[in-house]
């Protein structure tokens, strides 16, 4: 049985980091020091570049997908991607496929591409335009369009992958309201009191608060919103913010219907005292009651 070889410095420095290196034999990625020790990239961008370089060809690296995977917000991830583009580690171009669908093609470079141009990036194979058969002949099935590539080459089976369905955006309130937004923020931050697994980062609370405010705007009681978010959580719960975003979007209640306006009951005529018998009766103006009017008509 082989003993793993561990290399350690023969003489430890008096201060600073000390490396204990074990050789990797599987599941490792070679990353250059020009990236890990880059003098202008942020730590977020360096870590994101290392993560992207470790992914297989065809893996999704959209901003929303990464925001659900990591605690950083969508804004911070988007800024890191722009940094990697500016320094030649990433290239993103929008292309229109023969089917008419617009996709984003992403190319990752393990060496900074200073002269990267669309011509150097791998291009998808053009799809032949399907020929319309004669009426009596059966129509051949058209070839599926290629999916979005996320690395220098597309996997052999990427052409048969299903088209990804775009995720719906988080609901937003119709009318901004500071008190309602504050109540939504408190509700999200306090979920961990009812379910410890729903411990959210501050960026996630800010991102999800408008969606909760949209529920409150539709007259959903805060207790009902809380019960909906904490009920029947999966096991294990790996991405609580992504689960809450899904529930807030797909389970959004409709607005309450407008209550019908009730017609006011007609007011009764005021009471009057009969000029002849002084009996009370209802009439719009003073005069005689019904019996006295009948007597007067008979006497006439």
Q: How would you describe the overall organization of this protein?
A:
The chain is mostly helical. Among the domains are: 33-123 and 146-156, Arc Repressor Mutant, subunit A; 178-250, no CATH class. Helices cover 32% and strands 7% of the residues. The chain is built from ten helices and four strands; from the N terminus they run ααααββαααααββα. Strands 1-2 form a two-stranded antiparallel sheet. A hairpin with a 5-residue loop joins strand 1 and strand 2. The longest helix has 16 residues, at 202-217. The chain starts with 32 loop residues before the first helix and ends with a helix. Residues 115-121 and 146-154 have low confidence and may be disordered.
List the main descriptive attributes of the protein structure presented here.
300 residues, mainly alpha, Arc Repressor Mutant, subunit A, two-stranded antiparallel ribbon, 10 helices
* CATH class group of the domain at 33-123 and 146-156: Mainly Alpha
Portion in beta strands: 5-15%
**Gap between N and C termini, in Å?**
135 Å
- The DSSP helix count reads 10
Global morphology: elongated
- CATH architecture verdict of the domain at 33-123 and 146-156: Orthogonal Bundle
Q: Main sheet: which strands, in order across? A: 1-2
**Cα Rg:** 36 Å
Write the element-wise H/E pattern from the N-terminal end onward.
Answer: HHHHEEHHHHHEEH
Alpha-beta content class: mainly alpha
Helix content: 25-40%
| CATH topology heading of the domain at 33-123 and 146-156 | Arc Repressor Mutant, subunit A
Mean pLDDT: 79
Q: What is the β-strand count? A: 4
């Amino acid at each position: 049985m082989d003993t793993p070889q561990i290399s350690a410095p023969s003489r430890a420095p008096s201060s600073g980091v000390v490396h204990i290196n074990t050789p990797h034999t599987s599941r490792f990625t070679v990353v250059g020091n020009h990236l890990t020790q880059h003098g202008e990239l942020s730590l977020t961008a360096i870590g994101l570049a290392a993560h992207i370089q470790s992914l297989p060809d065809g893996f999704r690296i959209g901003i929303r997908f990464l925001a659900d995977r990591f605690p950083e917000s969508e804004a911070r991830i988007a800024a890191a991607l722009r940094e990697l583009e500016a320094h030649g580690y990433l290239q993103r171009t929008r292309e229109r496929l023969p089917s008419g669908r617009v996709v984003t093609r992403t190319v990752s470079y393990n060496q900074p591409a200073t002269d990267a141009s669309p011509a150097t990036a791998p291009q998808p194979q053009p799809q032949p335009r399907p020929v319309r058969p004669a009426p009596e002949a059966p129509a051949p099935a058209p070839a599926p369009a290629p999916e979005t590539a996320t690395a220098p080459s597309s996997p052999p089976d990427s052409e048969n992958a299903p088209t990804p369905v775009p995720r719906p955006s988080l609901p937003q309130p119709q009318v901004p309201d500071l008190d309602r937004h504050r109540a939504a923020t408190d509700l999200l931050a306090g979920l961990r009191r009812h379910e410890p697994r729903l411990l959210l980062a501050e960026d996630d609370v800010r991102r999800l608060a408008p969606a909760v405010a949209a529920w409150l705007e539709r007259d959903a009681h805060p207790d009902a919103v809380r019960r909906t978010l904490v009920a029947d959580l999966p096991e294990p719960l790996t991405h609580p913010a992504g689960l809450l975003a899904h529930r807030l979007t797909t389970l959004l209640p409709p607005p309450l219907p407008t209550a019908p306006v009730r017609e006011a009951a007609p007011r009764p005529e005021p009471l009057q005292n009969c000029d002849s018998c002084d009996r009370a009766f209802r009439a719009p103006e003073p005069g005689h009651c019904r019996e006295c009017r009948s007597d007067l008509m008979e006497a006439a």
